[in-house]
Design a protein that fits this description.
Elements (H helix, E strand, L loop, with lengths): L1 E2 L7 E2 L2 H11 L3 E6 L5 H16 L3 E4 L5 H6 L9 H4 L4 E5 L6 E9 L2 E8 L10 E5 L5 E5 L7 H4 L10 E3 L8 H10 L3 H4 L2 H14 L9 H12 L4 H9 L3 H11 L1 E4 L4 E6 L1 H5 L7 H14 L5 E8 L2 E8 L2 H11 L7 E3 L6 H14 L2
Helix pairs in contact: 2-6, 2-8, 6-8, 8-9, 11-13
Length: 368
């Protein structure tokens, strides 16, 4: 049997494997997994397949420990599908202490929200003793961008996996490259999906990364594929800009991301910037710069209710607080007498980072 690739030389594929992949692609829910510290082409191949599956009406789930640096670098060409339409549904588990007992659990509508009411048998439940946990969905099939099954050991400890026959490993081998395999797989989803401009751009970026800009494994078949991606509208100029750009703002975002940590208990992200971070990237603190930073963070880390942006300036520490919800705006107006600018609050000056963090954590506690 021949496995058809539109407009260029057909590549043979084992009939049993082709049959297996076609059966798998008829499923509805997919897991797309990378190994720790993936290659750039593996990340881009996964993003192309994720978008293709979304365009085909499939649901997907990806590992949450994805490479933040690569997501930041390629954010201009990565499409972020509507999670309500494309993400597999997740269950939220709410854990409360048993010591008070539970008399009743009920649910009320409050505008656009559902409110779950937990009534204890005695006393009161401390809000700090309530934990909300996501139960990760189990996919019907998995495409994993690595070559060894042993890599699954890292994933098995965190989530349920389908049976072995519903798991496909995708990696380059001595006969075919990663981009060839990924391109073939996406074409099976349909010609319209395969010709999508955004998918073609991701595939072309994957090809450029894997061949090191046509300096490695640049066979006739690879060159033919590059031509097809360009015919399908791949944005060569944006890829070139991403590959070679050294714009100060991009450098700043990379440095800021490395100095950011997420606090799950307070659902906040904290960024601590030194004066050198601005000097070495030829930037200066501004609402516009920090707003772009928050938007980038939303793409590479889970969305948070608060973003604390603190930086050293003139021997002290200045800061901005970005809040996601209107209720937080209202609280901070009352508590600090501050008014937001583009969803940011300018914070008081602090003598050092430790004093700033201590004060702001107390502020979060008072809002519980």
């Amino acid at each position: 049997m021949k496995f058809k690739i539109t407009n260029h030389k057909q590549i043979p594929m084992e009939s049993e494997k082709l049959k297996k992949i076609k059966i798998i692609l008829n499923k509805r829910n997919f897991g797309l997994f990378l190994r720790p510290n993936p290659l750039e082409e593996e990340f881009l191949a996964k993003e192309a397949l994720r978008l293709a599956l979304a365009n085909a009406g499939k649901k997907t789930v990806c590992d949450w420990e994805e490479p933040a640096g690569l997501k930041l670098k390629w954010q201009e060409i990565i499409s972020f599908p509507d999670s309500e339409k494309t993400a597999m549904p997740q269950i939220l588990k709410i854990k409360v202490p048993k010591k008070n007992g539970i008399a009743e659990v009920s649910c009320d509508e409050e505008g656009d929200f559902l409110a779950f009411l937990i009534t204890p048998k005695s006393g009161e439940i401390n809000s700090r003793e309530i934990f909300i946990q996501k139960i990760l969905p189990a996919p019907e099939a998995v495409f994993a961008f690595f070559e060894k099954e042993e890599e699954f050991e890292n994933i098995k400890n965190r989530r349920s996996l389908p049976s072995k026959e519903n798991i496909i490993l995708i990696s380059a081998d001595q006969h075919r490259s990663l981009i060839q395999k990924t391109s073939e797989l996406i074409e099976l989803l349909g010609e319209e999906i395969y010709r999508d401009k955004a998918i073609a751009t991701l595939l072309f970026a994957c090809l450029i990364a894997e061949t090191e800009n046509f300096n490695k494994r640049a066979s006739k078949e690879i060159l033919d594929l590059a031509g097809i991606f360009l015919e399908n509208g791949a944005d060569k100029e944006t890829i070139k800009k991403i590959q070679f750009s050294r714009q100060p703002a991009n450098q700043f975002l990379g440095r800021a991301l490395a100095r950011t940590y997420a606090d799950e208990k307070t659902n906040a992200a904290w960024t601590f910037l030194a004066e050198q971070d601005f000097q070495k990237t030829n930037t200066r603190p501004s609402l516009e710069l920090f707003l772009s930073l928050v938007k980038s963070f939303n793409r590479v880390i889970a969305e948070k209710d608060h973003y604390f942006l603190l930086w050293k300036e003139k021997g002290g520490v200045k800061g901005l607080l970005y809040c996601r919800t209107e209720s937080e705006f209202s609280f901070l107006n009352q508590k600090l007498g501050l008014k937001p600018e583009n969803n940011f609050f300018r914070l008081p000056d602090y003598p050092n980072f430790s004093a700033a963090e201590k004060s702001l954590r107390q502020l979060l506690k008072s809002s519980d």
